[in-house]
Specification:
Layout: E1 7-9, E2 21-25, H1 32-43, E3 48-52, H2 74-92, E4 99-103, H3 105-117, E5 122-127, H4 136-145, E6 157-158, E7 176-180, E8 191-198, E9 205-209, H5 223-228, E10 232-236, E11 246-247, H6 255-268, E12 274-280, H7 282-292, E13 297-305, E14 322-325, E15 329-332, H8 334-345, H9 351-358, H10 365-372, H11 382-389, H12 398-410, E16 417-422, H13 431-438, E17 448-450, H14 457-475
Helix pairs in contact: 1-4, 2-3, 6-7, 7-12, 8-11, 9-10
C-alpha cells in the first residue's frame, strides 16, 4: 500500500519557483524539522527546500508493524514521495520539471531509487549518511546543487555535480581527473578533464575516444573486455561532456581546442604505444592528436568515424555526402543538414534522444538517463550543442583545414590501422573504405564489419567491439 506522506517547506525563498527545488528525506526515528531545519537555514533563500516525514513521524499516521518490523517498503515509500514531488512541481507551475534530492538512512535510499526509476522527476540524488550534520549544507552546495562550480579558470566553466553520476547502471569505474590545455594556446588556462584508468598500470594502453553526444559511459561494455585481456584502458570525456568541465560559452569550443585538450591528456599522462579507438568525433579529434604526436601511437581501430574535409574527391565515396563541387559549391546530404540544424534550433537537447533513436536494441530508462546525467541544465549543454556546428561543411572551414592536415599524416601512418564499422550506420558508411585505401597501415589488415549494430556500436555490440580491439592489440 502506498503510504500518505506529508512534507514541510523549510526555506523562506521568495519567488521560489525561480529557485531550485530540493527535497530532503529522513532517517527512521527523526522528523524533518529535527534533521533539516538548520541545513535549510544555512542554504538560505536561494533554494526552495522541502522535507518529508516517514510514516509515524511528523503528521503522518504510522504503518502497521509486523513482528517488530516498521513496515517500510522502499518502492512504496518512493511512490508516496513521488506524489509529494508531483504536488510540489504542480504548485511551482513547472510540472514536468524536476527536483534535486538528498537524504539520510531510508530517506537516502528512497532518493537513490527515485533517481534511477524517475529521472524525469529527480535530477540528482545525494546520500548524506557519511557527512556530519554541520557539513551537510556545504556538501549539498558542492556535490548536488553545483553552487561551488565556479573555477579559477580564465573562462566561465560549469561542472556537473558528482551526485548526477551516482548509481549509473554498469558503470562502476572510479573517476580520475587531469588539467588539460592546448599547447598552442599558452594563455588559455587549463580545464579539468575526467577520464577512466582501468586495468594494470603496465598493460598496453588503449585510448577510447567518444564523440557527440556521448561520454565514457558509452564504453562501459567495452572496458571490462579489455581489462580482462590485461590491457590498460584510458577513456576520457571530451571537454563539455561527461564529468569533464563544461565551458559556458559555445564559442569556447573549437575543433582545434578539442584536439589540443586530448593531446594534453596524452602528454600529461605520458601515454605511449597507444592503441587509439575512435568513434564518431573521436576520429577527427583523435586522428588529429595522433598527427601531432605520431610517435606515441602504435595502432588504430577506427569505428564508425569520419574525417570530413569537404574535398571534391569524396564525391560518391561516402553515404552522407559532404564534398565540394567545382570551385565554389558543396554537396551536403539532406539528413546531415537536418541533423545539424536541429541541434542548433531545438530549445532543448537531450543526449538520450540521439542514442536511443539509433540503438538497434531498446535501452532502459536508467541507461537513457545516464546519457543525460552530464547535462542537468541547459547551461551545461553549450559543448553538446556546439560540437555539431563544428562539422566542416566547406573546404574553407577551419575544421576542414585540420582534417586535410590530419589526412596527410594518416597517409604516412604505416602502423596497423583496422576499421571496425557496423552495418547499420549510414552517417559514416563509406569512410571505412576511404581509410582502408588511403592509410598505408590499413593495407593487409583484417577489417571488420559488426553486424546488427547502429551508429553507437559500443552500445549495441560493446563486448564484440572489445574482442576486436583485443585481437588488434595482441596480433598486430
Amino acid at each position: 500500500m502506498i503510504p500518505t506522506i506529508t512534507a514541510a517547506r523549510l526555506s523562506g525563498a521568495v519567488d521560489r519557483e525561480q529557485h531550485p527545488l530540493l527535497v530532503l528525506g529522513p532517517a527512521a526515528g527523526a522528523t524533518a524539522l529535527d534533521l533539516w531545519v538548520e541545513v535549510a537555514a544555512e542554504l538560505g533563500d536561494a533554494v526552495d527546500v522541502v522535507a518529508w516525514d516517514l510514516p509515524g513521524h511528523g503528521y503522518n499516521a504510522p504503518l502497521a508493524t509486523v513482528d517488530g518490523d516498521e513496515g517500510y517498503d522502499l518502492s512504496e515509500l518512493a511512490a508516496g514521495v513521488t506524489r509529494v514531488v508531483d504536488d510540489l512541481l504542480t504548485q511551482r507551475g513547472d510540472l514536468g520539471a524536476a527536483c534535486f534530492y538528498a537524504g539520510v538512512g531510508i530517506g537516502g535510499e528512497v532518493g537513490t531509487h527515485l533517481a534511477v526509476e524517475s529521472p524525469e522527476r529527480v535530477l540528482a540524488s545525494l546520500t548524506l549518511d557519511d557527512v556530519a550534520p554541520g557539513d551537510r549544507a556545504q556538501a549539498l552546495r558542492r556535490d548536488l546543487l553545483g553552487e561551488d562550480d565556479p573555477t579559477p579558470y580564465g573562462m566561465p566553466v560549469h561542472r556537473t555535480p558528482d551526485a548526477r553520476f551516482v548509481g549509473l547502471p554498469d558503470y562502476p569505474f572510479a573517476p580520475r581527473y587531469v588539467d588539460v590545455a592546448p599547447a598552442d594556446e599558452p594563455d588559455l588556462t587549463p580545464v579539468r578533464m575526467h577520464y577512466l584508468d582501468e586495468g594494470p598500470p603496465d598493460g598496453s594502453v588503449v585510448l577510447l575516444l567518444h564523440g557527440q553526444p556521448t561520454w565514457s559511459y558509452l564504453y562501459r561494455h567495452v572496458v571490462p573486455v579489455l581489462v580482462e585481456a590485461g590491457l590498460r584502458v584510458i577513456a576520457p570525456d571530451n571537454i563539455g561532456f561527461g564529468r569533464s568541465d563544461k565551458p559556458a560559452s559555445p564559442y569556447d569550443y573549437t575543433l582545434a581546442r578539442h584536439v589540443g585538450w586530448i593531446r594534453s591528456l596524452v602528454t600529461t599522462l605520458d601515454l605511449r604505444e597507444i592503441t587509439l579507438v575512435a568513434q564518431d568525433w573521436g576520429g577527427p579529434i583523435g586522428f588529429s592528436a595522433l598527427a601531432e604526436e605520431p610517435d606515441r601511437f602504435a595502432r588504430v581501430v577506427a569505428a564508425n568515424t569520419i574525417l570530413h574535409t569537404a574535398d571534391p574527391d569524396l564525391a560518391g565515396r561516402i553515404e552522407w555526402a559532404v564534398h565540394g563541387d567545382g570551385d565554389s559549391r558543396v554537396v551536403i546530404e539532406e539528413s546531415l543538414l537536418d541533423y545539424l540544424l536541429y541541434t542548433q534550433r531545438a530549445p532543448e537537447l537531450r543526449a538520450s534522444d540521439f542514442v536511443g533513436a539509433t540503438a538497434t536494441t531498446p535501452l532502459s530508462k536508467a541507461v537513457l538517463a545516464a546519457y543525460d546525467a552530464p547535462f542537468p541544465t541547459p547551461e551545461h549543454t553549450a559543448g553538446l550543442r556546439q560540437m555539431t556546428a563544428l562539422l566542416p561543411l566547406t573546404r574553407n572551414d577551419p575544421g576542414a583545414r585540420i582534417g586535410r592536415r590530419t589526412m596527410r599524416a594518416l597517409e604516412a601512418f604505416d602502423r596497423p590501422f583496422v576499421t571496425a564499422y557496423s552495418d547499420g550506420d549510414p552517417a559514416t558508411r563509406g569512410w571505412e573504405t576511404v581509410f582502408a585505401e588511403r592509410v598505408p597501415g590499413a593495407r593487409g589488415q583484417e577489417h571488420v564489419t559488426i553486424a546488427g549494430a547502429g551508429h553507437f556500436l559500443q552500445e549495441d555490440a560493446g563486448a564484440e567491439l572489445g574482442r576486436v580491439i583485443v585481437k588488434v592489440v595482441t596480433t598486430t
